[in-house]
């Protein structure tokens, strides 16, 4: 049930599923941030967790009435975010990840900027890694490297600037009243789709590197591959919906996979063999350079890890993108409604 607290300035929405390892750190980083906790609320929307996530949150609720708990029967993040937005009391709404935590004074800094700069519709932080294992660090290095991040500013930049998307955005609540909620057909990339939607309408999204959020990367190779396959698939669906905001960058992995497949086929055709070899060699040189760049930080100890992960990343994203290209957006909409 929605609370009715007129004091609330900031509503923080956390969609979660099986986050028992991280949810305590996320909540603690919010309440110890230096903001007046009586003026914020945490809205946790649980997607049928099968671990102890719910029990952990219930213990926090016993101590703090500004934590609200809701269940997301449809599981997918876009539904959970929309549940949270509809329950929010704050003037500002932040999207938060249970896999994350934030630096001290984050909220005071962000809210002050939003109050002093009314043209800013949404503000987002720079994302830095937080590791529990060596594998998480390796995965993070690959995901956030300049050879694979697709030019996303919040992963690499240190300069304050207006952008077309941010992570963990703090939004003015009226944006959702004006432009609608998250598109529930987007199982992934729903925040990216919403950001582009409001950006196309002239709203300003500010990347502010003084704001720092920490993210815990994947630690399993299967999760890594699955993540990039899904990212590619939903970026293709995004491209169909937002044709005006297309960038050649999002097509590169799919084009790479297309040419790679045909290059191996062309190897058996004498007249095309040289072209095929040139493409394969050039790609391998690109991956080697990227892997060397990443492995200089650890004296080349994990060079082979970086090399294989970059190839897996490109292939899985490319396969997902190609599947998305041949998936009907209307068919997907009908499937979601069922």
Task: Please explain how this structure is put together.
- It is globular, with a radius of gyration of 21 Å.
- The chain folds into 2 domains: 10-219, Alpha-Beta Complex (Spore Coat Polysaccharide Biosynthesis Protein SpsA, Chain A); 240-337, no CATH class.
- 49% of the residues lie in helices and 16% in strands.
- By secondary structure, the chain is α/β, with parallel strands linked by helices.
- Strands 1, 2, 3, 4, 5, 6, 7, 8 and 9 form a 9-stranded mixed sheet that branches.
- It is built from 13 helices and 9 strands.
- Give the number of DSSP strands: 9
Helix content: 40-55%
Question: How would you classify the helix and strand content by structural class?
Answer: alpha/beta
In DSSP terms (H or I, runs of 4 or more residues), the helix count works out at 13
Structural domain count: 2
Q: Assembly state here?
A: single chain
Rg value: 21 Å
Shape, per Cα inertia axes: globular
User: How confident is the prediction overall: mean pLDDT?
Assistant: 86
Strand content: 15-25%
CATH topology assignment of the largest domain: Spore Coat Polysaccharide Biosynthesis Protein SpsA, Chain A
First-last Cα distance: 26 Å
Pick out the low-confidence regions: none
> So, the CATH homologous superfamily of the largest domain?
Spore Coat Polysaccharide Biosynthesis Protein SpsA, Chain A
SSE series:
EHEHEHEEHEHHEEHHEHHHHH
Main β-sheet: number of strands, strand sense, barrel status?
9 strands, mixed
């Amino acid at each position: 049930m929605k609370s009715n607290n007129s004091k609330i300035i900031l509503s923080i929405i956390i969609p979660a599923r099986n986050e028992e390892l991280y949810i305590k750190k996320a909540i603690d980083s919010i309440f110890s941030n230096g903001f007046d906790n009586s003026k914020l609320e945490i809205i946790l929307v649980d997607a049928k967790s099968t671990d102890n996530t719910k029990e952990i949150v219930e213990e926090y609720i016993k101590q703090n009435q500004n934590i609200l708990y809701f269940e997301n029967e449809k599981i997918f993040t876009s539904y959970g975010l929309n549940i949270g937005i509809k329950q929010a009391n704050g003037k500002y709404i932040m999207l938060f990840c249970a896999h994350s935590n934030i630096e001290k004074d984050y909220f005071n800094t962000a809210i002050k900027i939003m109050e002093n700069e009314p043209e800013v519709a949404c503000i987002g932080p720079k994302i830095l890694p937080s590791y529990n294992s060596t594998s998480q660090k390796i995965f993070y290095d690959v995901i956030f490297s300049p050879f694979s991040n697709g030019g996303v500013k919040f992963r690499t930049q240190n300069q304050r600037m207006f952008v077309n998307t941010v992570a963990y955005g703090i939004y003015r609540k009226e944006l959702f009243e004006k432009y609608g909620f998250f598109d529930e057909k987007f199982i992934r990339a729903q925040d990216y789709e919403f950001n582009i939607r409001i950006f196309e309408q002239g709203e300003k999204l500010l990347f502010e590197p003084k704001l720092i959020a920490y993210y815990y990367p994947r630690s399993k190779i299967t999760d890594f591959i699955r993540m990039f396959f899904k990212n590619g698939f939903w970026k293709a669906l995004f491209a169909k919906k937002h044709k005006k905001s297309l960038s050649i960058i999002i097509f590169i992995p799919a084009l790479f996979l297309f040419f790679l497949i045909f290059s191996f086929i062309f190897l058996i055709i004498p007249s095309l063999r040289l072209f095929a070899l040139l493409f394969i060699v050039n790609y391998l040189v690109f991956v080697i350079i990227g892997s060397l760049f990443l492995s200089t930080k650890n004296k080349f100890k994990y060079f082979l890890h970086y090399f294989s992960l970059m190839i897996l990343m490109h292939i899985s994203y490319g396969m997902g993108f190609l599947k998305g290209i041949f998936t009907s957006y209307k068919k997907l909409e009908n499937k979601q409604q069922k």
